[in-house]
From TrEMBL:
One of its GO terms (molecular function) is beta-glucosidase activity. Keywords: Glycosidase, Hydrolase. Belongs to the glycosyl hydrolase 1 family. This is 6-phospho-beta-glucosidase. One of its GO terms (biological process) is carbohydrate catabolic process. GO terms for cellular component: cytosol. Pfam families: Glyco_hydro_1 (PF00232). InterPro entries: GH (IPR017853), Glyco_hydro_1 (IPR001360). It comes from Peribacillus simplex. SUPFAM superfamilies: (Trans)glycosidases. Transmembrane segments: none annotated.
């Protein structure tokens, strides 16, 4: 191997309940915001395919998990559906959900795959949303109850826990830009939602540590580096503001236990500080993560604002900066996102230099491709060489970071098998394994799945 990874490196993939389980109305599951939105506004969803029809892991996991093994997994991240476990968000638990997650965990372990379990992946139970969702303190308490129930029921076998996946995404998509339910555009609400997500995470970490179950608990963040267009101070300042809002808003409290002073000042000046109790800040300070998951897809390119913002327009982060397209950027041919492999190295070095070199791993990296069946060979296997190259190019930079002493423990791709995506449904395919919707959701390993197995067996390439 030219690129050799440490022994016990975590090779695997990530997924989420809403995107993979299906059966969103079955076996006692309560509704979450996605079920509700699809029911009330199906036209928002690509080709009208909703979260009821995802990749049917709920009934197929017995066959899917051996396929994970066949594609080189030694670890796999999934999320528990809060509304499957607690149909009303709190109170009575659904015994069928406990059975289901127990079977998934046991089957993973029998196949030599370590379960990494995430507690919240964009899927607020509808009953909790009706109480105000993350805007509301009572929902923070309900979440901690739910988290504790998960630790009690599954914590004897699950040793890696995560409080949230990409908590900035519900803030942005649900409360600023209208892509997720409840589709508000309200900066004040967005800040409150962000603060409560941080608080909920710290409280869940506290609950986990108190139980002394012997595992680790962390958070998964999409740390998207903000690169300024030039060294001009106005561009650098714009990039710093974007970094404070989108990255450090969660990274600092999760790892260091405090919010950046500059971020607090930005919010204070605009009158956007959230409501909180003094004790909340103590809880956040005293309950930082043991482990950090980093999702990386694309960088953020930022420049100073060119026009004075319209004071009457809704307040958005874009008050502070403009986006620009990197001239000559390498694009993800099939999705339009910029590909910048070195970004992953820059993030890891930042964690090493500014966040105490905390134990971390790349928890999502992936390439979404439209109409991928056009790359099938005669045997019917998708020849996704573009995806293999994409992963290798990122792994080279991760390897470089490792050589320089970064405490990076693993690499998880997005995702194991093609799955349903928020609003885009099955438009962009990400899997190592194809799911054919037209053939009863038949699974077929792609070329990248075979490559991944070799990578994991050789522990390098
Ligand atoms: C991440 C999310 C995933 C997944 C992925 C791909 O931000 O954690 O849930 O969906 O992005 O993005 P998309 O599905 O929008 O193409």
């Amino acid at each position: 191997n030219i690129y050799q990874f440490p022994k016990d490196f975590w090779w695997g993939s990530a997924s989420s309940a809403t995107q993979m389980e299906g059966f969103s109305g079955a076996d006692g599951k309560g509704k979450n915001i996605w079920d509700h939105w699809y029911e009330t506004e199906p036209n928002r969803f690509h080709q009208g395919i909703g979260p009821d029809k995802t990749s049917l892991f709920y009934t197929n996991f017995i066959d899917d998990i051996p396929l994970m093994k066949e594609t080189g997994h030694n670890s796999f991240r999934f999320s528990i559906s809060w509304s499957r476990l607690f149909p009303k968000g709190r109170g009575e638990m659904n015994p069928k959900a406990i059975d289901f997650y127990n079977s998934v965990i046991d089957t993973l372990l029998e196949n030599g795959i370590e379960p990494f379990v995430n507690l919240y992946h964009f899927d607020m139970p509808m009953a909790m949303q009706e109480e105000g969702g993350w805007e509301s303190r009572s929902v923070v308490d309900a979440y901690v109850e739910y988290a504790s129930a998960c630790f009690e029921n599954f914590g004897d076998r699950v040793m890696k826990w995560f409080t949230h996946n990409e908590p900035i995404v519900p803030v942005e998509c649900g409360y600023l830009y209208g892509h997720h339910y409840p589709a508000f555009c309200d900066f004040g609400k967005a800040v409150q939602v962000g603060f409560h997500s941080v608080l909920a995470s710290a409280k869940a970490i506290n609950a986990y540590h108190e139980k002394e179950l012997g595992g680790k608990i962390g958070i998964i963040l999409n740390v998207t580096p903000s690169y300024p267009r030039s060294n001009h101070p106005a561009d650098v300042d714009a990039a710093e503001k974007s970094d404070l809002l989108f990255n450090r808003s969660f990274l600092d409290p999760s790892v260091k236990g405090t919010f950046p002073e500059k971020l607090i000042e930005m919010l204070r000046v605009e009158n956007f500080l959230p409501e909180y109790l003094t004790e909340d800040l103590d809880i956040i300070r005293d309950n930082t993560v043991d482990l950090l998951g980093i999702n990386y897809y694309q960088p953020r390119r930022v420049k100073a604002k060119e026009n004075i913002p319209n004071p009457n327009a809704p307040f958005l982060p874009e008050r502070y900066f403009d986006h620009y397209d990197m001239p000559g950027k390498k694009v993800n041919l099939y999705r339009g996102w910029e590909i910048y492999e070195k970004g992953v190295y820059d993030i890891l070095k930042n964690i090493q230099e500014n966040y105490g070199n905390i134990e971390c791993f790349i928890s999502e990296s992936g390439m979404g491709v439209e109409a991928e069946e056009r790359f099938k060979d005669e045997s019917g296997m998708i020849q996704d060489d573009y995806r293999i190259t994409f992963y290798e190019d990122h792994l080279k930079w991760i390897h470089q970071a490792l050589n320089e002493g970064v405490n990076v423990k693993g690499f998880h791709v997005w995702t194991f098998m093609d799955n349903w995506s928020w609003l885009n449904s099955y438009k962009n395919r990400y899997g190592l394994v194809e799911v054919d919707l037209t053939k009863n959701f038949r699974r077929t390993i792609k070329k990248s799945g075979i490559w991944y197995k070799r990578l994991s067996e050789n522990n390098g390439f």
